[in-house]
Design a protein that fits this description.
206 residues, mainly alpha, flat
């Protein structure tokens, strides 16, 4: 028995195939990120990434020639060097040792306390070093305020700003349907995408 397939029939078959393929891809997604969540991400991104620089520009404009920019940079370095360069490196090296990870698994609450205590100690050292450097010249009130803005500003920019850039990019990819392609490519490359799926679910359901 010979079955003749016309051009129209073939187009209909292809349309059904691609429609079903698209539906299967969309079925993997549990939904989309709401517009309210995206607006909130944009506001948080502005506060954490743009506002610290804006405050520096405004404050430096009001106190020209008083060394507030240098003080801001020193304050920022006080956080960046002690927390991200020194402390994070130490924790990364320790996390590669079996003994340390065994300690973390058995003493999770104590580990959380130690993380908080060491974060505070390193930041205090950073602020103290910043104050000592500023006091070599004249430590004025505008310089002290600027150093504080630098310390808190760089912390917000690094810990929140960069995180919310990532969140916003994922939200856009989820809503336009391209995130599944990224996940499939990552899976084919042998990457563990379970945590990414959990992160996507969090974005959608928050």
């Amino acid at each position: 028995m010979i079955v003749f397939v016309t051009k129209t029939d073939l187009c209909n078959i292809l349309d059904i195939f691609y429609d079903r393929k698209y539906l299967r891809k969309r079925e993997k997604m549990t939904g989309v990120v709401s517009s309210g969540s995206i607006v909130t991400m944009c506001i948080t991104l502005f506060i954490s990434l743009v506002l610290p620089i804006l405050l520096l520009v405004i404050y430096a404009g009001k106190h020209r020639g008083e060394g507030v920019v240098k003080a801001w940079l020193l304050g920022a370095a006080g956080f960046f060097v002690t927390q991200l360069v020194i402390r994070t490196t130490i924790l990364s090296v320790l996390s590669m040792t079996e003994g340390f990870m065994a300690f973390v698994e058995k003493n999770y609450l104590l580990y959380a306390v130690l993380l908080g205590v060491t974060a505070g100690l390193f930041e205090v050292v950073g602020r103290f070093a910043c104050a000592k450097l500023l006091s070599k010249n004249e430590l004025t009130f505008p310089k002290a305020i600027s150093a504080g803005l630098g310390h808190g500003g760089i912390e917000a920019m690094v810990l929140l700003g960069i995180t919310y850039i990532n969140n916003l990019l994922y939200a856009v990819m989820i809503n336009n349907g391209t995130v599944e392609t990224v996940l499939e490519e990552a899976k084919m490359a042998g990457a563990d995408i379970s945590q990414i799926h959990a992160f996507i679910d969090t974005l959608i359901n928050t």
